[in-house]
Amino acid sequence: MQRLNRDAIIAIILLAFCGVFFWASFDIRQPDYGVLMPSTWPRVILGVMTFLSVLYLIQSLSLGQEEIEDDQYDAEHTRKPGFRGWLEHWRNPLWCFFLFFLYLLTLPVLGMLIGGITFVYVLLGMLGGWDGNKPVVHGVIAICAIGVMWSVFTFGLGVLLPPGMILGRF
Question: Please, what sign has the CA dihedral across residues 118, 119, 124, 129?
Answer without folding.
Answer: positive
